[in-house]
Design a protein that fits this description.
This protein is mainly α. Helices cover about 75% and strands about 0% of the residues. The chain has one domain: Vanadium-containing Chloroperoxidase, domain 1 (Up-down Bundle). The relative contact order is 0.17.
């Protein structure tokens, strides 16, 4: 067995143990289902307010880019989800978008960065508990989202001269 297969097997085992320890509940499903709308509301609120509009637009661009890249990678990787959904789950688009938003908020010095990271962690954990993803899917999506946000934030910052 190759080391990548071993890692995948360990990841599946970790996900199975988490789901056995915390059986699927209405609360986990509610949290998992509210992850995307919560982050969409956050970005919308940032865009709606003039003082945070640039940060909101940057977060929107980073989240959209991260989500598109995650989708393309997910289709290539083709790793099955733990639950009944047919499409692949690696990397998680939800985790990529949430991490991109939280990273953008961090880079822009927003006071909302820590709550965004907390929401991303809780939402990602809930998606593991509900069988939407394995822990590695969430971790890969988080890393992808953070990298995309850093690259975009720096590139746009150089173009428009962002200070903070």
């Amino acid at each position: 067995m190759t080391s990548l297969r071993k890692l995948s097997a360990h990841d599946r085992s970790l996900g199975d143990r988490a789901r056995a320890w915390a059986p699927r509940s209405r609360w986990a499903r509610l949290v998992a289902m509210s992850m995307a709308p919560s982050f969409q509301l956050l970005v919308g609120a940032l865009i709606a307010r003039r003082p945070t509009r640039v940060t909101g637009l940057a977060a929107l661009a980073a989240a959209g880019s991260a989500s598109l890249i995650a989708r393309a990678l997910r289709d290539r990787v083709g790793r099955a989800r733990p639950g009944p959904r047919a499409e692949g789950g690696m990397p998680s688009r939800h985790a990529a978008a949430a991490a991109a938003i939280a990273t953008t908020l961090t880079a822009r010095g927003s006071l909302l960065a820590s709550p965004a990271w907390a929401g991303a962690a809780v939402g990602g954990g809930a998606r593991v508990l509900t069988g939407d993803h394995e822990p590695g899917d969430i971790a890969a999506g988080t890393v992808l989202g953070a990298v995309v946000a850093v690259v975009l934030t720096r590139a746009v910052g150089l173009l428009v001269g962002w200070r903070r």
